[in-house]
């Protein structure tokens, strides 16, 4: 059995990640891959419990460090139970958010700092980083309004716009300095965005089949 691929999807709340992941999944499946979709926080029984604590609208007193550690705890369980086994079995795992979310939200948004959040996460991820990350780039205010109109806003999504702008700045910062992260203009139509996603996947698969790691 070959080594699988780990793809993480990142972006502001409401940037269209779930919508695009559905289409990505179909695309990989059409190419003959076995695809698993997952998400963070969550993705495991324990992780979903942690998710409920983190996103509970009543938990207003949660400290930023507690928040960062809880996301990392959910991630550690996810790596152990889902991501690593999928990779071993040669599957493609598409994950709605991973470590870059913690860097952007807790590191930059909450102001804990990128170094502190990276350190917390280095234990959680157990050496597993995504092979490819797609960042859906859209003005956080536009993205958030999509979500609020949907009536599905949770504790983090109800944060002040200022917080989401900081998170967005964090994303831009890490995306512009890391070749693993591909940036897509997510302000366009669903199918225009999907077309770009397909191009990125094709380029990624071609490089991998030629034996290149980047
Ligand atoms: P996320 O998973 O990033 O929070 P979703 O895929 O759930 O985002 O999309 C949030 C909302 O925006 C949903 O109501 C979805 O139907 C809508 N949406 C998704 N993609 C687009 C798009 N390209 N243009 C306009 N609305 C979109
Ligand atoms: P979710 O409902 O999955 O949001 P979305 O559909 O926008 O992805 O909620 C996840 C929330 O948790 C979202 O606001 C981003 C936040 N988050 C962090 O702050 N740090 C993290 O490490 C992760 C994985 C998510």
Task: Explain the overall architecture.
This protein has 214 residues and is α/β, with parallel strands linked by helices. It has a single domain, classed as P-loop containing nucleotide triphosphate hydrolases (Rossmann fold, 3-Layer(aba) Sandwich). It is 56% helix and 13% strand. It is built from eight helices and five strands, in the order βαβααβααβααβα. It has a five-stranded parallel beta sheet, sandwiched between helices. α1 packs across α8 and α3 packs antiparallel against α4. The structure holds adenosine-5'-diphosphate and thymidine-5'-diphosphate. The site of thymidine-5'-diphosphate has 17 residues, from α4.
CATH architecture term: 3-Layer(aba) Sandwich
Helices and strands, in order, run as EHEHHEHHEHHEH
Tell me the CATH superfamily.
P-loop containing nucleotide triphosphate hydrolases
**What summary fits the major beta sheet?**
5 strands, parallel
Integer count of domains:
1
Spans of at least 5 consecutive residues whose pLDDT stays below 50 are none
Q: Give average pLDDT, whole number.
A: 94
Beta-sheet strand percentage?
Answer: 5-15%
Approximately how much helix is present in the residues? Answer: 55-70%
